[in-house]
User: Fold these one by one.
Assistant:
Number 1:
Amino acid sequence: MSTFVFATAEYTDKAEYNRYVELSTPIFMREGVKVLGNDETAKFSGIDGEKAILLEFRDQAHMRHFFALPDYQAAAKHRDAGAKMRMVTFRRMPAL
């Protein structure tokens, strides 16, 4: 069952964050992660953020595998240097 990650980014160093995007995009593509949303014009209510991101993974094991990849971990250092991230993971609701 699909697992989603909803994240918000609040930039602290846009150049570092942009480097993360440059490094991580090919990894997302290679690993079959679906980027369902990536919006710097999102409107936030009750949470801080300048960008909203919605990712879809095949399942929780796929998500854990992806975030543990050495090349993704190296890219994530730029993400962490460039933005304060808030993330929520959740599973797809079963069909009724």
Note: The chain has a mean pLDDT of 95.
Number 2:
Amino acid sequence: MNAEVSKPNRSSRQCSPTCTGGARAALLPLGEVDLTGSPFVVGAMFGQQGGATTPAQVQVAWEDQSNINRFNKLNNEWHELQARVQRQERLTEDLEDASNELMLVDDDEVRFAMSDCLFVRLPQDEVEVKLQEEAERVKKDYESTKEEVEKIGAEMAMLKTRLYEKFGNAINLEEEV
């Protein structure tokens, strides 16, 4: 591949047509994105779909870019919280299983895990109390996490609506499966 790379001409604020591997790139004033002649940007970044055409120029205001960044941040946080909810659901099931197993134990004392590698023998009644306390703590944490997920989801939906109204199919905010 014989690609010529040159420095941008500061007076015209454009780089040579070959500086991006053949796609025309321009350094435009803040708020303006030039999509003409750039199949990579139109096809991959802006997801040209169903034969729909993308405008030659899309005006991206500072507020729009802030909304896009906010949506991205919320999306990452939403995914982290979803993973946390799944961990809490598994922990709730594990605590319930431990409580059920404890009912079947005939001994007065049972081994209780204080940490990953520390087990102590405690009276069965004390272990039942500890399991109940832990289950209540996990339930409260689970409920607050679910509320946070719903709050973030609502804000994401509002931002998604606002951004799709402005950019139409020139922006893709959907999850890739």
Note: The helical segments are 39-45, 62-104, 124-167.
